[in-house]
Write a structure and sequence with these properties.
- The complex is a heterodimer of chains A (113) and B (113).
- Chain A has no helices and eleven strands.
- Chain A has 113 residues and is an all-beta fold.
- Chain A has a single domain, classed as Immunoglobulins (Immunoglobulin-like, Sandwich).
- Chain A starts with a strand and ends with a strand.
- Chain B has no helices and eleven strands.
- The termini of chain B are far apart.
- The model of chain B has no long low-confidence stretch (mean pLDDT 94).
- The chains are: A mainly beta (113), B mainly beta (113).
- At the A-B interface, strand 4 and strand 5 of A face strand 5 and strand 10 of B.
Chain lengths: 113, 113
Amino acid sequence: GGIITQTPKFLIGQEGQKLTLKCQQNFNHDTMYWYRQDSGKGLRLIYYSITENDLQKGDLSEGYDASREKKSSFSLTVTSAQKNEMAVFLCASSILGAYTEVFFGKGTRLTVV
Amino acid sequence: QQQVRQSPQSLTVWEGETAILNCSYEDSTFDYFPWYWQFPRESPALLIAIRPVSNKKEDGRFTIFFNKREKKLSLHITDSQPGDSATYFCASNTGGLSGKLTFGEGTQVTVIS
């Protein structure tokens, strides 16, 4: 087994601020993902990284940057926080391939004031 | 554009009844359909998955029925238990190297005893 650790658990930011969310996994998985979960809207893919040196945009990449620092870590930056934004950002990982189980971290809850 | 649609948005059943959750998709290249469940304040976790080579997948009280021609699938929870109360997400993947998933908006299931 393994674990995905996201930091911080809670993040309060101000409008216009640049905010960084971090994720570490010890599954030794090749592929990592960032999803955003809004209440009642399911999960939407922001960025993903198939292998250590790869970075690809998801459906919701506008307003975000991502960086795969090493195989075990993947960070997400909100480039300019939007006022009254509230969402949970979920980091996930899986082995290489399509028909695999994706494991999720416990999330970072973002509130922008 | 919502590529994976779920209905109903919420569902309440009595303990012991069968809950039926529906999912439809638009992209005919999707060829892997996992269902994830999420308990309050927890992260999503894989429940059961199917590939279109089959039209049925069973795991205990949980069964997926798949209709490739109509691009529809459903999750049946038989003998529902209060511990099954959760939000259920239908997801899909087009294959390839990554396990990136497109999620529906979820069905919130409440089982009352």
